[in-house]
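Researcher: Go.
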Amino acid sequence: MRIDFLTVSSSNHASPTGSLPFVIPATSGASSTVLDVVRPIPSHQIQAWGSKHGAISKTQPDSDRYEAYLSLLDHRIRNAWLHTLYLSQPNFDAVARPLYINPATSSQPARLVLSHNLKAAALEEMTKASTSLVIDLDALYRESDNAFSALSDLLGDDDWFFGEAEPGLFDAAVFAYTHLLCDEGMGWKTEEERLGKNLREGKWKNLLAHKRRVFNKCY
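Model: Structure:
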């Protein structure tokens, strides 16, 4: 069974968890009203939601194993991403500001407020599981490097994660980071961008090859 879907360009700021992708389930049809509440499905619940609605791969990975590796993306890598994009001032000015601030308004006071809100939201997200607002940057980027190493070991010599015959949601989730971190068009200030340094320099060659396969197949 397949689930029909429509893809729409979006922003992580539209997501209930602050990360992409997310799914907005269709309403029940003619009987639905504007008062119906449709709860978005965040990225870490999409596989379970798809399984519940019949979209199950014949080679579906073990759920606990899948969730363990997904947590590397949702926490260790994402926290480093949040710091890189929002809390590193050179990268905020070069990447986040043109993407999220300048297109939203031409008012300088409004831009200052938006910038403050984005940075505060990023810091709050990063410190959810901590009792301190102080971020150990060395530990942050060491953990993200360890997460990429674990993903590289998981992929091994396979084309797709978990030995699938075709790319799946997990492949897309990894690609979402690896592609943007390696995209020169993003305008990263490389001297400040520690998250993607080892990736771009070829430490995990199979992740770079995976990135190219996803791009060639899906774009």
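Model: Residues 63-87 form the longest helix (25 residues).
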